[in-house]
Amino acid sequence: MICKLIQFQFLVVTLFLTGCVTPDFVPKPNLPTFKNSSTAESYKDFMDGYLEELKGRFDSARVFYEKALKGDPHSSFLYLRLSELNLRQGDIYKAEKNSLKSIENNPENFRANFILGGIYSSSKKYVLAEKYYRNSVQLDPEHFEAKLLLSSLLIEMKKNRQAIQLLENMKENRPKNILILFYISKAYYLSGNFELSQRNLVMLLKINPNYKAGLFLLGNLYEKQGLFAQAQIVYKRFLEIVPNNQLARYRLGQLFIKDQKYDRAINEFESIKKETPGNMQIHSVLGILYFKKGDYTRALSEFRFVIVENPKDQEARIFVSKIYERLDRIDLSKKELALFLRLEPSNLEVNLELSILHAKTKDWKKAFNILNEMNESYSQDPKIDFLRGKFLAKKGEKDRSIEFLKIAVRKSPKNLNYRYYLSTVYYETRKWKKVESEIKKILVLVPDNPNALNLLGYMYSELNIKIKIAENLILKALKKDPTNPAFLDSIGWVYFRQQKFKEALEKVLIAHKKLPNDPVVLEHLGDIYFALKKIDKALYFWKESIKKGSKDSKRVRKKIQLHMKRKNQ
User: Fold this and answer.
1) Which residues of 107-132 are buried (b: 16+ CB within 10 A; e: fewer)?
2) What own/partner pairs with CB < 8 Å and gap ≥ 24 does 187-193 have?
3) Cα 78 from Cα 67, distance rounded (Å)
4) How crowded is residue 358: how many other Cβ atoms within 10 Å of its Cβ?
């Protein structure tokens, strides 16, 4: 019943709304034209039904019209009257049936064709809707509503070229008609012609600056073109007109997220939450935003609300687990995932998250048990092989790690993360040619991948080969991410190799501010200060590198011992 009511409401809007916004349209009166054989009684029945209809007594009117049809069973007009009455009562099935009967008796009945177009459009039977709207246009080529609704239908059917052709013809006669400008803008937008879409929208908004549908489409258009600042301005203007429009607030909030303006995004989504407190998607978005801001108390509150409504919400459970992980409550983090797995024990993503937590606490047995168990059901999933390789690398079993990482790459050859991690393990095992080979494969897939550019450039600088190429590679990475401390350290090390010690010190000191405990950066500072003949500072940073867990502590100790001897001589 609800579905039928919605269809009826949509149909009423389709058939009558456009007439309200186009004052130059005046419907032609429908008059009865009975056949000669019609009895006076049939005409009287029709008039009685018509009077009842005017009084709002629709059931009684229908009885009279049906009685009149018995005296004139081939009256297209009477079937049309019944169809319109059926629509007023919300009986779409009978309206369709009587409209078809009307056309059967008179194929050129414009109104019956027009009504059927609306009926089929509202029930998403688009092929039939197109047929009857086209019939309507052929029967009355100047009928504005028929052509407008046909163009709207063609857009819905993704026949944008046909819609544009029809609308452009209509526009020649009515260049300032709001509806024509809106639909032609929409058709151009959906066909990817943003320039013409924008041109028509600008014309529309000059005529009516407050036309809501036009403003919203313009916001969408700017978003599609990556013009996020302009889109924000348009959505704000839209919300001045319709303050409670949740969709516009949602779009504006998403734009603030892209700009990393999390406070402003939160304001928008909190406004939506006030209007629709039961919207779980909004609670999830707010939870993520509070998580990004580090406001774990509020993030936890939002995700808990989601979980109460849907205990199987995977994303919310994982975020709650990550919140506890950030708070160094690994026990609660594991417990959260375990609670979810009671409901869905074979859920791959949550099991993998739990295995990562076990690996973090070096509970390797549990971590690998989960992966082995998941592999029985998901043997083709490369994430399992990747985590096996990653965990083995962390355990120090590099050769075994490489074997699993190679399997992950073979299963998913375009996954950059898998290839990059394999490259780092090759690097740690000093398999330089293999590092170079994997990185070049990444750069074939994504030529400006900053991490790949940096790793290859840094490897060349470490080996003290191809220094100019190394410099170019790392500078390209820095163009993508100018403040990345690892990249700054890398370019500093290239300058060190080029004996540009002051430039080297400048870059590595910036990296050190962002990574104060990184043993590689600390060792580089020691080497640079030594080159600048500042031995005390060099010794200090070398010692700090060892304290912070240098993987090459033997090499760093040799430097300290050698230069301590020289200092004491």
Assistant:
1) eebbbbbbbbbbbbbbbeebeebbeb
2) 187/151, 187/154, 187/155, 187/160, 187/163, 188/160, 188/164, 189/217, 189/220, 189/221, 189/224, 190/155, 190/158, 190/160, 191/160, 191/161, 191/164
3) 10
4) 20
- The rounded mean pLDDT for the chain is 91
Predicted confidence at residue 71, as pLDDT, reads: 86
Rounded to the nearest 10 degrees, what angle do helices 76-89 and 40-54 cross at? 20
In one letter, which amino acid is 531?
A
Residues composing the chain: 569
Share above pLDDT 90 across residues of the chain, in percent, rounded to a whole number: 86
pLDDT digits (tens, 9 = 90+) for 205-252: 999 999 999 999 999 999 999 999 999 999 999 999 999 899 999 999
Q: How many CB atoms lie within 10 A of CB 404?
A: 23
- How far is the first Cα of the chain from the last one, in angstroms, to the nearest whole number? 98
| Residues 161 and 191: beta-carbon distance below 8 Å | yes
Mean pLDDT of 156-169: 96
